[in-house]
Amino acid sequence: MPLAVGALVLGGCGQTEPTIPDQPPPSATVTPTDLAPAxxxxxxxxxAAATPGASPVTFGDLAxxxxxxxxxxxxxxxxxxxxxxxxxxLATPALSVDATRGATPIGGALGPLATPVIGSPFVxxxxxxxxxxxxxxxTGTASDDHEAIVVDGTLYLRGPLADELLPGTSDAVWxxxxxxxxxxxxxxxxxxxxxxxxxxxxMAGLREGLRPQELRTIGPVEIEGRSCIAYGxxxxxxxxxxxxxxxxxxxxxxxxxxxxxVGTDLVSRIVYTDFDLPLSIExxxxxxxxxxxxxxxxxxxxx
Length: 303
What we know:
outer membrane lipoprotein receptor (LolB), chain A; 12 strands
């Protein structure tokens, strides 16, 4: 069960925790109109313009704006929610069917959803202090739930997922392993891949074919107390399914949220908050080293 939100058009985020963090995941307040499915118009029809006569906004324009603002980010929190863990949690979604490795997640755990995510949602919360401190928690997947902390190239992991690295490990026990020794083809390696590299802008992996697409301006929305403008676009997955994408961006160019819909169903959502606010990410006081003790990796199932 890969936790990389790459299958979601905007590319990849999602995977997380063990005994769940001490604090519950933050929630976002979204109004029903914020969740209206994006219905992009064909390029050139003028629908993307926010006002009559204004230049249309393309995916490329939006990506460049977000990427530029992201360069100054030092800390942030992202909450990703999806119907099923079809991709690695907390990897950052990159606008493409094939997720960019280590891309920052898209999606978000929201309080009461105006439009519920279909199925039984899992929630991944990622906190980041650039360049080398991250904390990720994943809940709602049972055996893959976990809390993971990365500090100075070392991964600390606890929760059900830790049992895959060292069978018999209690959910409350922290394990430690150098990131360079994390078995890439194991379930843990696949779910934690987003923690192996510094997070990049959520739109850094936008594929070239999407850049010229003119977006529909949905209008102003408020997300977690931030005033944002939402834009709608669309893409097609590798199996031919159309996905509508809604990207909300604040006036400073930083992302507020990214959502994907299939038809009227909200499939995933990520909400970004706490940019450049104080965060504390420290390694646990006690952890069991597992370097050199790992069993042979069990390859992740492939279709």
